[in-house]
Write a structure and sequence with these properties.
The protein is of the alpha+beta class. Strands 5, 6, 7, 8, 9, 10, 11, 12, 13, 14 and 15 form an eleven-stranded antiparallel beta sheet that branches. β3, α4 and β4 form a beta-alpha-beta unit. α3 packs parallel to α6 and α7 crosses α8. It is globular, with a radius of gyration of 21 Å.
Length: 349
């Protein structure tokens, strides 16, 4: 039901995957010192970056990231590799030229790396190792490392929009795919509460079952671009930047990531029967035909609810971080042309 992140089961690793020697993490400073000792210094400002989530791909993302790092170097490019959680160590190194940020992980890793891409002026390339990999799906990116490296030889870029989301007056967070309030966010919350390790598709079975039995259908008021669309009505709202959604539900199947707008979809629902009706219609791309469904293309959105602990999610990650918050006040605005994507090499054909 909810946008799913985590790690997938299979992943092509390309022809240049190393088969010898132990794996090691390439830290930017250590890499630079090593090359300097050989008379050749690697500058973060002149290198492609590889961020990886150590828990993605059932723990295989570090291996894949290292294989990608070596393949990029064999192709004659400089590259630095670092765990995504340590990306802040790269502060002060903006890119000098058309350089890429390879993200090895799931959609959650992409989500947490967006500000890194913007801050360091890197074009995003997603090497998918999550459960859904919606960002990679949007642009036709695969686990083929040869494809990723070939994309550097004749690079083509696409500028995309992002969005900024503020919860309850907290610092804004950036998202690429979507945010939502309602039962899909309830699934993410339930999953987070029971999570003990890496996520698989099967990890969602129990949270989805519990959410269907007792769905979060909060009373919502929705304002968009200065007007009120919904006033104190129960249901679920999705604010989408991408056409793709978990489990191929795709409620905003016409969304475009470069149009300077966000797709807002409100599903009125007071029961799980009404909710299921909307979800099934969305699966067949007919959700807009259901009575009461609202679809608008907007620049700014405000969603409020008087209900305590109303769940929200961004790119499949839990949205609200204030425990026992008395009510929801979520504000979203589009960030036009906020990031660049490195297109896969096949897009040249």
């Amino acid at each position: 039901m909810g946008p799913q992140t985590g790690q997938g089961d299979r992943m092509g690793q390309g022809r240049n995957e190393p088969r010898e020697g132990p794996l090691r993490v390439v830290h930017p400073d250590r890499e630079a010192r090593g090359r300097q000792g050989q008379g050749q210094r690697v500058s973060p400002a002149l290198s492609h970056l590889i961020l990886f989530n150590p828990t993605s791909g059932r723990g295989r993302s570090q291996e894949v990231a290292m294989a990608l790092h070596r393949a990029i170097r064999l192709a004659g490019h400089d590259a630095l590799m670092i765990p995504a959680a340590q990306a802040d160590e790269l502060s002060g190194h903006p890119a000098a030229g058309d350089l890429a940020l390879f993200i090895v992980g799931g959609d959650g890793t992409v989500h947490r790396s967006l500000d890194v891409a913007r801050r360091h002026n890197r074009a995003i390339y997603h090497v998918p190792m999550g459960t859904e990999n919606l960002f990679a799906r949007e642009f036709g990116m695969t686990g083929d490392l040869d494809l990723a490296v070939r994309s550097l030889n004749r690079p083509r870029f696409r500028t995309i929009d992002l969005a900024s989301c503020t919860h309850d007056g907290q610092a804004p967070r950036t998202f690429a795919l979507m945010c939502s309030v309602g039962p899909d966010a309830g699934v993410i919350r339930r999953l987070a509460a029971r999570r003990t390790g890496p996520i698989r598709h099967t990890s969602y079975v129990v949270p989805i079952a519990h959410e269907l039995l007792d769905p979060h259908l909060p009373m919502l008021t929705i304002e968009a671009d200065g007007g009120t669309l919904v006033r104190h009505e129960a249901g679920m709202v999705v604010v989408a930047n991408s056409r793709h959604y978990a489990m191929r539900l795709d409620p905003a199947h016409g969304a475009e990531m470069s149009d300077g707008l966000l797709d807002l979809i409100f599903f009125p629902a007071r029961s799980r029967v009404e909710l299921l009706t909307h979800l099934l219609a969305a699966r067949w791309r007919r959700a807009h035909e259901n009575p009461g469904v609202i679809h608008r293309r907007v620049r700014e959105v405000r969603v409020t609810s008087p209900e305590a602990n109303t769940p929200s999610q961004l790119d499949g990650e839990a949205g609200r971080t204030v425990p026992d918050a008395p009510g929801l006040d979520l504000r979203v605005r589009v960030l036009p042309a906020a990031a660049r994507v490195l297109l896969p090499a096949w897009a040249d054909r």
